[in-house]
Each structure stands twice: as C-alpha cells, then as structure tokens.
Write a structure and sequence with these properties.
- It is a single chain.
- By secondary structure, the protein is an alpha/beta fold.
- It folds into three domains: about 160 residues, Beta Polymerase, domain 2 (2-Layer Sandwich), CATH 3.30.460; about 140 residues, Rossmann fold, CATH 3.40.50; about 40 residues, no CATH class.
- The protein is about 55% helix and about 15% strand.
- The chain is built from 16 helices and ten strands.
- The protein has a six-stranded parallel beta sheet, sandwiched between helices.
- Helix 12 links the parallel strand 8 and strand 9.
- The longest helix is centred in the C-terminal third of the chain and has 48 residues.
C-alpha cells in the first residue's frame, strides 16, 4: 500500500479551475465517504480550500487509486480528462508526506506562513474521521502533519505579520487604496474569511465598516465585535451604493455581486469603487471589472501582491523546511515501526499460547493452590514471557525497514512458526 496525493492547487491550476473543484463544507462529508468506497482506495482525506483541492489516500493499488481520484475530480468539476490533466499534480510515499507537511506548515500557501491552513488540515482530518474514511494509516499521517504545522509556528516566525488571506487582502487594500480612514468598506460575508477581513480592518483603524451577511444574527455579532453596522442580504444594493471599497468572501458558490446589481446600486453614485473578491468560487461576476469606475481584484491579484513580500520570510522558511525534513524522518521511523507491530503481536501471542497450554497441562498439580497463589503463578509466567520477548520486540521495531530488520523478521517467523 502507498500514500498518494493527487490534486490541483494555486501553483498547478488557474483560479477558474480551482473554483470548479472547490467543495462546499456541507458537501465535504458525502464526497469523502464516496471516495473512500472506491475499489482501489483504502483510506481518504480531502483538503479543499480557496487555494487547493487535494486528495490524500492510502492506495490499495497505486495506478488504480490514481485513476479513481482523477475520475472523482472530473465528476466534481464536470471536467473532461483533457481539461484536468495538464493541471494535476501527484506525489507518493515520502514525497506525498513532505508535501502535506509543507502545506500544514504554511510553506505552500499563497501567503507564505498563513495560519488558516493548519485549521483547514485539522478540519479535513476530522471530517474523514467522522466518515470512517481515515483510519490507522492516514491518522498517523494527519496527526504528524498537524504537529509539524504547530512546530513551524512555535519555533519560527513564519506565521508572524501577514499570516492569512484575509489579513493580506486588507494589507493589499492599504497599498492599492492608500489610507482607509473615512472610507466606507463593505464586507460581504461573515464567515471565517469575512471575520478575518473585518477584524483586520478594525485593528488597522479608521475605516467605516459595514457587514452584509445572509444570516442577520451572525452578521450582527461580527459587526458588534468590530464596531461596524450590519445589514442583511436584502439590503446589499444599499451597501454597494454607499461603499468606497467592497471585500467579498461568502461561501455561496455563485456570484452575489453582479453587473446588474452594481449598475442598479451605483446608478446615481459618481465615485470609484474598489472590489476585492477573495471567495472561491468567486463572489463577483467577471463582467463587473469592465464597468466604468469599478476596479476588481481577485485571489490571483492577491497572490501576485503577496509574492512581493515572500523574500522577507525566506530565512524563516528555510528554518521551517528543516523542521519539515525532521518530521518527515520521524514519520518514516514511526511508520516502519508500525509495520513491525503485527509481527511483534503475533510473536507474543504465540509465546502466550505456549504459556497458557503449559499451565493447563499442569493444572492438576496446581489445583491445591489458593486463588491468590494461582494469580501469582499467572502473573509470574506472564512476566517471564514479557522479559524474554522484550529485546526481540525492540529490535524488530528499531530495525524495521532495513536489511537487518528483514533478516530479523524472517528469523522470528521461522523460529515461532508464524508463517
């Protein structure tokens, strides 16, 4: 069996393709469950964010699992193989482990070191656990990835400063639009991304913030925390009319800011409008960018902007890569040790079967012993077996995955007649 990752991310595919492959949170459990039922896949975790849709599996058959994942992605995005294939990337075993650890550590993010991805990795793992799609193999992998991400952020400064897409969007606004003091900024969407934008704007100070959200209660709660006003979606036109800047970050899956809505809302407004769309799929209809007086930035623009600041974190990134390399080696050691575990268990079971049979054979001679004495004999014989097998067990685990380990395993199978 192999660890395999196949997917499309911001490095391998354009934004329109990523939009088609994004999985809504409410749909993720069903998708993971269906993937794990495929013939060549033993376990599966699906990581779907604004920057990537990546499928991690324990593959029964490598080529069969690769084909299953390709079929899954084609069905998900309603794509032909020819449309998908040029943008697919894949890695297996050690390279797949290293890639996931870099993702969790923030090295593979559009905003280097961003912190949101670690929570997204945890969420993807939890959904797979809930669907029984992640078991021993991927549980070890995902737990190690989360630990790597935590080490990267606690032992280096990779996550300091601009460490999320939402914060980067606000910093880009400052670069593009200048001082936001006395500007009306409308945040469309009060989910995690919208909350991040609103909090960053509030921290920067000066902006007059309006939060527009489908759920009035959630929008009002966020608005209260950042000193903003809150409107329901039925008043989106009103918010667009009064805004100087709009940041859109809903999870609607379809455009909520359309050419028609902008033309209707801005018919009597003679001020330029800056729109930043950080949603995937995009919240802003493509033609909005062609309207007079309207400038639209999307995630591709944000990534280009973020790339200019990556050099500032290069030193920290090198430190994180060393952590990733250490954790990949630690994972390999634990993985090979687990491969020895079934043999160790079989050896100990074989020895305990002999112990139990001998006690049974001498049961008549032990009949006169008190219950306490019989318990003492039981404990004594178990302790002898445990001490005798301790060193062989340790050697089997320590040497697993090496030529010496293969020789040790063969000898144990022969000596204990384990087959």
């Amino acid at each position: 069996m192999s660890i395999l990752v196949v997917g499309v991310n911001h490095r391998s595919g354009p934004l329109p393709l990523l939009e088609r492959l994004t999985i809504a949170p409410d749909d993720l459990a069903k998708r993971v469950n269906g993937l794990a039922q495929r013939d060549n896949i033993r376990e599966a975790v699906v990581l779907s964010t604004c920057n990537r849709t990546e499928i991690y599996v324990i593959a029964e058959r490598f080529h069969g699992a690769y084909a299953d994942i390709c079929d899954f992605l084609c069905e998900l995005g309603e794509l032909d193989v020819d449309e998908l294939s040029p943008h697919l990337f894949s890695e297996h075993d050690g390279a797949a482990v290293g890639h996931l650890f870099e993702v969790a550590a923030g090295l593979d993010s559009a905003v280097l070191g961003e912190g949101e991805i670690l929570g997204q990795v945890r969420t993807a793992w939890q959904v797979a656990l809930d669907e029984a799609a992640a078991r021993s193999g991927l549980n070890l992998l995902m737990r190690s990835a989360v630990e790597t991400g935590k080490r990267a952020r606690s032992e280096t400064a990779i996550g300091r400063g601009t460490a999320s897409v939402s914060h980067a969007a606000v910093e880009m606004l400052g670069d593009v639009a200048g001082d936001l003091s006395n500007r009306r900024v409308t945040v469309v969407g009060a989910g995690s991304m919208g909350e991040g934008v609103a909090m960053a704007l509030h921290k920067a100070g000066g902006a007059d913030i309006c939060v527009v959200n489908r759920s009035p209660e959630r929008g009002a709660a966020l608005a209260q925390r950042v000193g903003a006003t809150a409107l329901g979606f039925e008043r989106l036109d009103e918010a667009l009319a009064s805004a100087d800047v709009v940041v859109a970050s809903t999870g609607s899956g379809a455009a909520v800011i359309t050419i028609e809505s902008i033309e209707r809302a801005r018919a009597e407004v003679d001020r330029p409008l800056l729109v930043v769309d950080i949603a995937v799929p995009r919240d802003v209809e493509p033609g909005v960018a062609d309207l007079d007086g309207v400038t639209v930035f999307d995630l591709d623009d944000l990534r280009d902007w973020a790339d200019r600041g990556r050099a500032q974190r290069a030193k920290e990134a090198d430190m994180v890569r060393r952590i990733v390399a250490e954790e990949v080696e630690n994972f390999k050691v634990e993985q090979t040790a687990r491969q020895a575990a079934p043999l160790v268990a079989s050896m100990r079971q074989a020895a305990d079967d002999v112990r139990a049979a001998e006690l049974d054979r001498f049961s008549s001679r032990l009949a006169d012993l008190s219950a306490a004495d019989r318990d003492s004999v039981e404990a004594l014989t178990k302790a002898i077996i445990s001490k005798l097998l301790h060193e062989p067990s340790v050697r089997l685990k320590t040497d697993a995955g090496t030529p010496q380990g293969d020789r040790n395993a063969a000898a144990v199978r022969d000596l204990f007649n384990l087959g």
